[in-house]
Design brief:
about 230 residues; alpha/beta; Arc Repressor Mutant, subunit A; five-stranded parallel β-sheet; five-stranded antiparallel β-sheet; 8 helices; 13 strands
């Protein structure tokens, strides 16, 4: 799935090189040459990843990162730095950076670190009360589902089916297994019941409908890598 990436650096040649390689991988790329411009773009748009140089005019990378994290936003951030001081790396991690790449670096190193961080950010965050997958937030105790921050109504069985699959990401379940897990044994339902509920859930998930994947001949899974 294509990603929307913001790259911030005051070295124009480096910006253009990184943009060129990310575009080849199918990503959407926005460039900024200083921290103030980066923060302005971040406020207006949603990004899947921010690649952020530390030493920049107007506002350095540390300050940009602090402001983003102060808003509670967890967009993955990779710092680029030509400095070798270990203190910079420690400080960056403490204020919320997810990774560091030291200059000079190979494009293969850059690409692999970007892809690894994007894969981690796509993985669901699961705790006892809440499941977060991409732009979907499932609140177990209140039976609420938020999609990109907006509440969407799910009847009880649709909610329980979505919650069960999301609680077991990337595992395939047969229709009969899902019937046993979600519907009580004393209620007569057929395999087609699962298909109907999956169809309804997908419609409500909107841009994340492909999260629930049909595994032909077997059943369904919550595929967080789609």
């Amino acid at each position: 799935m294509n990603k929307n990436i913001l790259i911030v650096d005051d070295e124009e040649d480096l910006l253009l090189m990184l943009k060129h390689h990310l575009l080849k991988e199918g990503d959407f790329v926005t460039l900024a040459s200083d921290g103030a411009r980066a923060l302005s773009l971040f406020i207006k748009h949603k990004y899947d990843l921010i690649v952020l140089d530390i030493m920049m005019p107007e506002m350095d990378g540390f300050e940009v990162c602090r402001k983003i994290r102060s808003e509670g936003d967890r967009t993955p951030i990779i710092f680029l730095t030509a400095r070798t001081d270990e203190f910079d790396e420690v400080l960056g991690l403490e204020i919320g950076a997810d990774d560091f790449i030291r200059k000079p670096f190979s494009i293969k190193t850059f690409q692999s670190r970007v892809r690894a961080l994007l894969r981690r950010s796509d993985s669901p965050v699961i705790d006892t009360e809440k499941i977060q997958i991409k732009g979907i937030e499932i609140r177990k105790s209140s039976y609420n589902v938020l999609i990109d921050g907006s509440q969407v109504d799910f009847p009880r069985k649709e909610f329980e089916l979505l919650t069960f699959l999301a609680s077991n990401p990337n595992k395939v379940f047969s229709r009969s297994s899902l019937l046993n897990q979600v519907w009580s044994d004393d209620v007569y339902v057929v395999d087609r019941t699962v298909d109907v509920h999956i169809g309804r859930i997908r419609k409500k998930l909107g841009p994340y409908r492909d999260l629930l994947e049909t595994v032909v001949g077997i059943g369904y899974q919550c595929n967080t890598q789609y």
